[in-house]
Amino acid sequence: MLKSFKGFLMRGDIVTVAVALIIALAFSTLIKAFTDFVINPIVTRFQGGSSVGLGWQLGKSGNVATYLNVGQFISAVIYFIIFMAVVFFLIVLPYKSYQQRRGVSVFKEDGPEKTCPACLSEDLPKAASKCKYCGTDQPSPGATTAGASM
Question: What interhelical angle do 70-87 and 12-34 show, nearest 10?
Answer without folding.
Answer: 140
